Amino acid sequence: MSENHFDIIVAGAGPAGLTAAIYAARGGVRCAVAGGVAPGGQLLETTEIENFPGFPEPTTGPDLMMRMIKQARRLGAQVLQEQLSACDLSARPFTLTVGAKKLTCDSLIIATGARARWLGLESETKYRNKGVSGCATCDGFFYKGKTIAVVGGGDSAAEDALFLTKFAEKVHLVHRRDQLRAAHRLQEKIRANPKVEIVYDHVPEEFLGGDRLETLRLKNVRTGEKKDLAVSGAFIAIGHDPETAVFGDALKKDAEGYLVTDARCATSVEGVYAAGDVMDPHYRQAIVAAGTGCMAAMEALKYLQEKKG
Ligand SMILES: Cc1cc2nc3c(=O)[nH]c(=O)nc-3n(C[C@H](O)[C@H](O)[C@H](O)COP(=O)(O)OP(=O)(O)OC[C@H]3O[C@@H](n4cnc5c(N)ncnc54)[C@H](O)[C@@H]3O)c2cc1C
After folding, report:
1. Is the peptide bond before 58 cis (omega within 30 degrees of 0)?
2. C or N: which end of the chain has fewer Cβ atoms within 10 Å?
3. How many angstroms separate the CA atoms of 148 and 37, rounded?
């Protein structure tokens, strides 16, 4: 086989993809990772990580991801700083366009992650990691006894608001409509929780403060009136977009675009596995992504073994 052929190619170099690469390389097969322009994934966007096991003191997202890249490379995986831009899963071996090259592989592991939706305000970017967060599970702990806001009205926003009441003294749930979209059961819990105040018919207009967020300025969508909330944190919970565009309709997806897998990370195409946030609408945590990355690689290795007979 040519040097452009790999037993396993992993698409995406976040915790899922790099863990898959570590297991694939240790499984003794030829493995390449299409790592995109900045290998490392979503954790490159964050500062403190306190919930990844093995780090008694907080580490940073970039540090954790650089360690994973180093580990995958040391074990023999080729971590390429190239984007996967096209993919033919209709014939075997699979053909992938990675950067300027055509690569082929017998098994593909998709770990392209998901992108949190943001509001798109300039001040939101300014205060990201300085009060503005896209992950309640990750950052809720930092808001003990504080007043915060959650933006959104669906299940995720309602779940985040309830989760955050464990830490925060008060949670404003800001929703652009006059009723929540969240499941009835969640709405009841929200209404029964004295720490949550729902602010209907409002959208964030600006995030204000000094070094960190201090005020969330809202606009009433009906009257145009402005209203300031004094908050030290604002959690944006308006959904995620799984990164699956490059696979077109080749693989089964759910209604929200997440790749559908069985309990062993197998997708609808034999030999193609998925791991991490691209197939996980529920947990969206680095340790879960790493766990499913490990599962996908073990299944891919088994598939290759069985294929060889
Ligand atoms: C600000 C922030 C803070 C967070 N904090 C924590 C925390 O404290 N603890 C925790 O456990 N989790 C945290 N998370 C969640 C965690 O980052 C994700 O659950 C985890 O990164 C998912 O890993 P993944 O490998 O599935 O995907 P990702 O990390 O999203 O990695 C996927 C990678 O694939 C790349 N990619 C996409 N398409 C292609 C393509 N066509 N070709 C090549 N590459 C491609 C993407 O650009 C990305 O680099 C945080 C997330 C954010 C945004």
Report:
1. no
2. C
3. 34
* Ligand 1 mean position, distance from CA 69 (Å): 14
DSSP state of 254: -
What are the contacts of 122-128 at 24+ separation with CB within 8 A?
A: 123/206, 123/207, 123/208, 124/204, 124/207, 124/236, 126/207, 127/207, 127/209, 127/212, 127/213, 127/234, 128/45
Strands 240-242 and 114-116: antiparallel
Task: Report the greatest alpha carbon distance in the chain.
Answer: 70
Q: What is the pLDDT of residue 45?
A: 84
178 labelled catalytic? no
User: Could you read off the pLDDT of 112-151 as tens digits, one per residue?
Assistant: 999 999 999 999 999 999 999 999 998 999 999 999 999 9
How would you class 224 by CB atoms within 10 Å of its CB: exposed for 0-12, middle for 13-18, buried for 19 or more? exposed
pLDDT band at 220 (very low <50, low <70, confident <90, very high): very high
- Residue 135 among the catalytic residues: yes
* Of 35-39, 212-216, 293-297, minimum mean pLDDT range: 35-39
Closest residue by CA, ligand 1 atom 49: 41
Active site annotation includes 105: no
Q: Which atom of ligand 1 is nearest to the CA of 116?
A: 53
CA distance 149 to 171: 5
Are the C-beta atoms of 64 and 43 separated by less than 8 Å? yes
- Given the CA of residue 133, which atom of ligand 1 is nearest to it? 1
What domains, with CATH codes, occur in the chain? 5-115+240-308 (3.50.50.60), 118-236 (3.50.50.60)
Nearest atom in ligand 1 to the alpha carbon of residue 245 is 41
